[in-house]
Records
---
Amino acid sequence: MPKKVKEIMTKDPITHKIPSNVSDIIKILIKENITGLPLVNSSGKYAGMISRRDVFDHPDETQAAIVMRRAKSVSVNDSVEAAAKEMLLQNRRHLAVVDSSKKVVGILTPQNILPVVKELHGTEKVKEVLNSISVPLWENTPINVASFTMRLSRVYSCPVVNERGELLGLITDRDIFDKVNIKSSVILTETGMADDEDPWSWDGIRNVVTYVIEKSNIELPKKPIKSIMVKNPEITTTVDKISSAVAKMEKGNYNQLPVVDHQGKLVGMLYDIQIMRIFETKKAQ
């Protein structure tokens, strides 16, 4: 029996009130090591969602109310199926959950929904939900070009292939930014934390490294991506059960898996949000 959103949501999420500055949001992302949060108005009611991607897209904007997305929320009493479809529609990783008075009481990410997918539709095949744009990159692509490609395509996890198109590895924006040497003084200044005595960590700052690089015009290295890619990444096949793919994501804390066919040839990428397509696919049948 399908569950309600209130049964699977993360309760009492971190929120922030607007009007506010983007620098305040960045501080929260760093200190709490999160990638997004709901914003509320002066009455405490849901106003919109803001994530690190929204901040990256507006590096020169200072007002959080302008950067935030006025994204639709879901209700505590909505079905998980309805929430999954809304997440797929928005193609974003955070959904605010509100009560009858529009107060934020929870938040949903793919990690909340995937266990339900595994339970209800785990026996279906990966090929049923494989419908995402995939941007493979050649192993000798320079790191700076890979970052440029990701930014323009808005695809931030790419399979790495050789000249024959064979899968060699996987590279994400975080793999790139983990290799960038940024002075602490630059990080603190650009994130508005220069005069802040509270502790911060690299795990937290990784959420906003793209912002720092864009804002500070930091040049990325030109060495080939094969030098920093994840070698021999976990994969799934088109005929694997969705439950198997989800289990791999859960075990490795992955947001994506390269997909190969029965001959081991790369056919695409499976992203956790796109797995929500199973609710639309099954309804259409």
Note: Residues 110-121 form the longest helix (12 residues).
---
Amino acid sequence: MHIEFHGAAGEVTGSCHLIEVGKHRILLDCGMIQGGREAEARNALPFAFDPGAIDAVVLSHAHIDHSGRIPFLVKSGFTGPVYTQKASRDLCRIMLRDSAFLNEKDAEWENRKRERKALQPVEPLYTVADARVAMRQFKGIDYGVKKKILPGITLRLADAGHILGSAIVELWLEENGVQRKLVFSGDLGARDRPILRDPAYIESADLVLMESTYGDRLHRSREETRNEVIGIVRQAETARGNILIPAFAVGRTQHILYEFAKHYHDWSLDRWQVFLDSPMAIEATEVYTRHTGLYDAESAELWRKNSHQTLLPNLHLCRTANQSMSLNRIRSGAIIIAGSGMCTGGRIKHHLKHNVWRSDCHIVITGYQAGGTLGRKLVDGATQIGLWGEKIAVKAHVHTIGGLSAHADQAGLLDWYGHFDRQPPLALVHGEPDSMDALAECIRDKLGTRIIRPRPGERIDLQHPLKSA
């Protein structure tokens, strides 16, 4: 009985952990590595285990850094079920299709260059057809349902409060009369966030795997965040420019729309035209409207009163490429919400090309930016960026709004872990080294917990937690 770490060990993306109990093997997540070109090239490498020998996947939530390699896993021989919360299954149908489409386009672009050089063509990591086949293996389950998924392995999901359908994973494991309970946090949301319920507290575990994305910082309060947004809107209005918001299609976009609807008059948003320029975000928002039973009471009431099309009277949905391109002619008064959230692809790159060199433009970064991404370069103060082979000056004002993050901060992570009885051993995953160091020191100082930071490929014997096998 042991666990091996094959992703998000010492880094944020690519979540993937292998659990063996007797003759059975399951994966916790099977995510895509995100970042620069070198990092993302690792997605095409063979798995460090035999996909055909995996009996099941347990998926914490739909974000691509947790789900994005599942079609590649299926393509490589995995035939078992993928267990996830029902809303996550619905979101994955959208997100994996989009990921596959981008893989196909990337391969097509690369092959054009390779053909001119008389080189052999490359295949996409997986295709839209592959993603469709993988979705047939998804099994949606509700929060709170205890389900035996294999001999010696029982599963229950609890609300993680990160995005719709995000789950904390509880696993009861038994082998040769030895019983252990493992809890995987998935990605934890911040408490008192709009739309979603707070992350559930779990009482017991023999080993806890916890994310540490923002383990080295505290988010601003909701009030401070709102004041910051008001300041940005007023600055941009005075400068008579546009506001660009790179946003993840699932979670962040819906959060932003909620805040805009709630503060429509307070923030003078009636003076702007708001464009949601992301077909995937539009589809994801429709999924959100079908799962209002997962909302907190305040948000459920607001979304009952308004469908996403009338949530804002000045909201325009841009589904087609022509609708998106028409925005490039707007010089002022536009708030453009577009993917991707880390500016690695999608329509936001086109809007950056037409706006980032303008000093009257404001760019609002609302989420984590992985190292090597265009979004990270903007956050780090780049004065020049490259887009399609062209160097473009950065004159726009770049704002980082940490209070809109879908991740718990250091205090939130400490609070969630602190509710376990007797502070079980803790393995920190899904974080950069500095974040892990800060969080580990904080937890040790306050709770005296024994903590490990697994390395890629490291194995932990679950019969004797914290001992490498």
Note: The chain has two domains: 2-217+406-461, 222-404.
---
Amino acid sequence: MIKKKVQRLLDEIENEYIYTRRMTGKGKLDPRVKSAISSVPREKFVAMDYIDNAYDNGPLPIGHGQTISQPYIVALMTDLLELDADDIVLEIGTGSGYQAAVLAQLCKQVYTVEYIAELAEIAKSRFKKLAYENIKVKTGNGFDGWPEHAPYDGIIVTAAATHIPDPLLKQLKPGGRMVIPVGQPYFHQELMLVEKDENGELAVRDILGVAFVPFQGERDA
């Protein structure tokens, strides 16, 4: 039954890739990302009240005004990072832990920061139960990143900021990529891809209109 639900979800993600290809530049899901989505048991990352909807292609509440993201968006953001097996990734906004679990299938190490302490502890417990040994969680303000482990090959932000935090730009390795939704809470937001070249120069590209919960703890500088 679960296998059928997973396959249906993958088919829906593939169809959405085709539908949005002119905006995203991606008409096909990377097979490695597809495998990662397949291998992570999404039902372990949702509340019991929503267990029957775990493999729907939509966001679900996780408490504290937060959500587990739509699987298509998880796949797309992961895909845009273009990760290699030896990469080190920073995630801002652990939430349920689902996005970090997907990333962990594709890279060497994931460091993830969660603003809400209770969500961080729940995610930490899930990772331990599911034996995700290459994910480290801390409670903190994601605006500051996690400088102790910088620079990062990839940075992914799972909440909408009004601007791209400068500390995160500084912690992105030359040659690295950042995916972040930017815009006003509950209004228009744009998923952005930030690329830093080997000389440290930045290129920013709008990818797709999105709707994320607000970035917690954001500052002007």
Note: Strands lie at 60-63, 66-68, 88-92, 109-114, 135-139, 152-157, 172-183, 189-196, 202-210.
